[in-house]
């Protein structure tokens, strides 16, 4: 029998990743009073993997003698309840004194440290055990990562068969729109705006006939002609009148194309897991229900991508920045990044917000080369 002994801390993933990778028979979580809620959150997620979990509360967070006394209680319990168990102590969690105290007390057992920066599990040397390292595997999907962070996923649009079929049909249009974005961002904005105005707040097609502010020319006209030939919308060359055939196409052209483009680039370049349109809510009630545009996991880190196609107005730059900072930080914890991908040239105000909130802005000039940035992130 294999058992993991973990010290619970605010960051759950360094404890969770080795558990998912090694899948022990049982896990004992050692929790201080301050970490009670985190311990229950971690225990809930581990139980979903079919692993037995015991939470032992009352671990001191200071005073080496008190930590030793607590460790003795834990040792006695393990000998009684799991007499034949092979114990692995995960020394990544807790504060330094808690970790040092446990390592000293369980020095005859296998001791593990999660090195997330270098993507490996370090096995510390023991009396008869040389040091070793184990490559960290991809074990966290997007829903699994969010669940570990306390966000319960209710729906993922990109997991639906009908959406995947339609998205594959539209894939070429996503790439073409991204490629012309540096040269035609204003015309793309006008098309996005018209499609947005055709929809109700509930996403239903209510006013399918719209008038563009400018006659489409060149590459954007070619794209509209192709959409017309495929009966996705009605448009006649040289006119400003456009009519959307259905709500799905209007949603795609109002901004969904950018989300799908990001999704396809991540998927095609080998991200471990990619999800578009992730809906759910925080279990702790913080922030209530939320929806994420695009999320991806690679090397057990999370990438949160917010996509924008309409104009950036000064009054909503702060809202965009707040969502990327607050929601992104809650979802990814310390392990991951937040990007804003936009088809419109970002304002100086938005770029200033991005610098202060520490998220990356990828504008229209970079869209055709998004693959390069994605590959850089995937390689870590």
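Q: What amino acid sequence fits the structure above?
A:
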């Amino acid at each position: 029998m294999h058992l993991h002994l973990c010290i619970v801390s605010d960051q759950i993933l360094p404890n969770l990743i080795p558990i998912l990778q090694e899948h022990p028979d049982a896990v004992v979580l050692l929790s201080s009073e301050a970490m009670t809620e985190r311990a229950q959150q971690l225990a809930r997620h581990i139980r979903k993997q079919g692993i037995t979990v015991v939470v032992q509360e009352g671990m001191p967070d200071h005073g080496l003698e008190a930590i030793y006394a607590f460790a003795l209680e834990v040792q006695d319990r393990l000998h009684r309840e799991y007499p034949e168990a092979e114990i692995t102590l995960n020394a990544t969690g807790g504060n330094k004194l808690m970790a040092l105290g446990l390592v000293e007390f369980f020095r005859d057992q296998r001791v593990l440290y999660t090195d997330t920066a270098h993507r490996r599990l370090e096995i510390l040397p023991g009396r008869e055990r040389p040091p070793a390292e184990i490559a960290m595997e991809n074990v966290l999907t997007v829903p699994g990562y969010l669940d570990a962070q306390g966000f319960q996923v209710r729906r993922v649009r990109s997991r639906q068969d009908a959406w995947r079929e339609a998205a594959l049909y539209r894939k070429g249009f996503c790439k073409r729109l991204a490629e012309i974005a540096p040269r035609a961002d204003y015309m793309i904005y006008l098309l996005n705006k018209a499609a947005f105005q055709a929809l109700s707040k509930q996403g239903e097609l209510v006013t399918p006939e719209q008038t563009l502010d400018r006659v489409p020319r060149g590459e954007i006209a070619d794209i509209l002609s192709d959409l017309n030939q495929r009966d996705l919308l009605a448009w006649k060359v040289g006119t400003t009148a456009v009519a959307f055939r259905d709500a799905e196409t209007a949603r795609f052209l109002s901004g969904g194309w950018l989300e799908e483009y990001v999704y396809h680039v991540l998927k095609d370049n080998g991200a471990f897991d990619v999800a578009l349109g992730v809906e759910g809510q925080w279990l702790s009630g913080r922030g209530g229900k939320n929806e994420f545009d695009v999320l991806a996991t690679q090397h057990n880190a999370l990438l949160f991508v917010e996509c924008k196609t309409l104009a950036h107005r000064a009054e909503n730059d702060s809202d965009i920045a707040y969502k990327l900072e607050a929601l992104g930080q809650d979802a990814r914890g310390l392990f991951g990044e937040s990007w804003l991908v936009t088809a419109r040239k970002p304002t100086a105000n938005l770029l200033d917000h991005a610098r202060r909130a520490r998220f990356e802005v990828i504008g229209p000039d970079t869209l055709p080369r998004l693959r390069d940035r994605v590959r850089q992130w995937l390689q870590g």
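Q: And what stands out in the fold?
A: The two ends are 35 Å apart (CA to CA).
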